[in-house]
Amino acid sequence: xxxxxxxxxxxxxxxxxxxxxxxxxxxxxxxxxxxxxxxxxxxxxxxxxxxxxxxxxxxxxxxxxxxxxxxxxxxxxxxxxxxxxxxxxxxxxxxxxxxxxxxxxxxxxxxxxxxxxxxxxxxxxxxxxxxxxxxxxxxxxxxxxxxxxxxxxxxxxxxxxxxxxxxxxxxxxxxxxxxxxxxxxxxxxxxxxxxxxxxxxxxxxxxxxxxxxxxxxxxxxxxxxxxxxxxxxxxxxxxxxxxxxxxxxxxxxxxxxxxxxxxxxxxxxxxxxxxxxxxxxxxxxxxxxxxxxxxxxxxxxxxxxxxxxxxxxxxxxxxxxxxxxxxxxxxxxxxxxxxxxxxxxxxxxxxxxxxxxxxxxxxxxxxxxxxxxxxxxxxxxxxxxxxxxxxxxxxxxxx
Length: 399
Description:
- The protein is of the alpha/beta class.
- The chain has 13 helices and 13 strands.
- The chain has helices at about 20-30, 45-55, 70-80, 95-105, 120-130, 150-160, 210-220, 235-240, 255-265, 265-285, 315-325, 360-365, 380-399; strands spanning about 60-65, 85-90, 105-110, 135-140, 160-165, 175, 175-180, 185-190, 200-205, 300, 305-310, 335, 370-375.
- The strands form three sheets. It has a seven-stranded mixed sheet with strand order 1-9-8-5-4-2-3, with helices on both faces. Strands 7-6-10 form a three-stranded antiparallel sheet, with no helix packed on it. A three-stranded antiparallel sheet has the order 11-13-12, covered by helices on one side.
- The radius of gyration is 21 Å and the shape is globular.
């Protein structure tokens, strides 16, 4: 094996920008961390973030939430999901997505995936045709965007209400249209490993005035929803204000202060991620035994992580490959584990849902798929070092 062990941390993010630190210090100095602790006519950091993110997305309304998981839950509840309803969802996703569905009391109907890790559109069309299906929570898992033209056609044909989980696609687009702007609502994450970092946090966008009014009340506005500025007219709240329960899922001014400068720099950061992603993808495609799926020309992705498959390999071979890479400092995740590990999970581990289907394609694809973060603290030279370790390991284990 190579003597040059990779020594950088795959979880080390860049520092919060100086403008974000200054904004956070100003919030701390004021003591006004709670989003509604503002003077008459004053806009707090959270309200300003909502205005700016709605504008960035080209949407009418935005709500800042405690997490993307809470944003998804609020979106589903505010769109009208009731206990016992059936919600379609791709089987390859992370645990907060089925968690949001379970939290509504709805049933999950999992949809298979295909070899490029996106949702199986034929399986989606088949399951969308069922008479008891109305809802579709689409997870753009690990930043892979499926054919949104066909997805929207399926939604129109079967009258599906689409909610988008865009935790991994903030700043991405399909055919020039931003991810998160296709559905009735789009939900985003600002957790540390996403494209903007506030530790935890989420953003919900929509053009639906009733949905956002419900979501604002659900989030815990305590009849202070007039202090939201990315909202509909106050009259929309009148029929809802005593009928919608409080779930206390707000973002605070401190986290919003950290995020606003990052939003202003988001597109540049996305370009930086893609330089690293493209460099890694090109290198991985040259390594025998490694499969990296092609991406559509319509997809403007944000490559903050990369996935590749060890097609045809057995579990012992894959474990040996992962272990040897880790010995050399290259940390790869694997969704083929029978039990959830760290930030991975397979749908079979969501045992709080009954009647989970057998999805052989999803199992086959995840059983050989490797997953790697690409932090912006890595340089292109670092990417070359990683490629060298993966290539040497593949030669030893896979040939």
